[in-house]
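By way of example, we now present a protein record of this kind:
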Amino acid sequence: MAISLDDLAADSSFTQNVKGQVTFLPEPERADRWTPVVSVDDHIVEPPGAFVDRFPAKYADDAPRVATLDDGSETWLYAGHSLPNVGFNAVAGRPVSEYSFDPTRFADMRRGAWDIETRIVDMDLNGVYASLCFPSFLPGFCGQRFQQLTDDPDLALAAVRAWNDWNIEEWSGACPDRMIPCQLTYFLDPEVGAAEVYRNAERGYKAISFSEAPHSLGFPSLHSGHWDPIMAACEETDTVVCLHVGSSGTSPATSPDAPSDTVGVLFFGYAMFAAVDWLYSKIPVRFPNIKIALSEGGLGWVAGLLDRLEHVRKYDSMYGTWNDVELSPADTLRRNFWFCAIDDPSAFDHRHYIGLENLMVESDYPHADSTWPNTQELLRKQLAGIPADEVARICWANASDLFRHPIPDSVIADPNSF
């Protein structure tokens, strides 16, 4: 069973927060750096001017812009739709008791949520050297909202291109040593989407945010072959396919009357479902050099899934799906997939079974799951007793290799040097 994230956002009873209350916690001290850290899952709240002068004149009036409503709240307007900033997308620095889906003003966020210069300051406070950022509510995690709120595919393409232009010019491009560029996908035509991958690779993009389950968005499934042009472009350009939990527009759920905690507990579930769906779509078989990263999905389920893959392999001749593939499903998962830890202490015991080279970490700033400003402290505790060379692999080296983002020798030698 799954629940729409838009339905969750509209559920005023999802949290017990005091509506309208805004409290900023005391400014944290700069974390002592135990290790360099590359966070492969953080988020952007687009600043108000992100789309100014980035749309063709024909669509200038439809470009996303921020408007202040009569009650003083702020919302984005796009293609005739009102899209408020959702509170869960920018709660870093505020008490947990105030987390909610309520719309939030820019003034009610830490400035680092939407301002690149202040973001770098907050990364420094947290001891994160480099970051890969996904969008949040406005475009959707993979850009789907820009494309599904209009019947005009050219407007949709203009919106995706405008976001990608802004990111490479004013966000990732403003701090290329600290930011790993991740683009939105154009879904409405896979040939055009593939052309965008090639164009963006030439501009320095290292990753693309794709949907974990495009069929849940009303697009063709992974098993249809429909997405092969985009997958081929990603393989050829070494563009990492990032699958963020929730990029299907849904989250796993249990019974309709279960408490909201169950959604929070099961949020990782779609990462496991996505791994199986992508694996058995045989995209990693048709494109053996493709790289797939599962963001905010955690690690705890991976070892169990590998066990189950080995068990089901005994029935290959019954199912027939994998009969013509030499490499086993489990080893294909290890070859083509990377996994991301946010708060998974027990999972590190299985690091060698999963594959040490497949593990990465995240801070999820400024979202509700964020470990900011305590990422360094958390990793120090959870990786205690693990050899230093393995800590390096998990905390920065795997991500540096995967996303082709070098870490300076000075930072490796002394993580407190930046």
Remarks:
- The first strand starts at residue 2 and ends at 4.
- The chain has a mean pLDDT of 93.
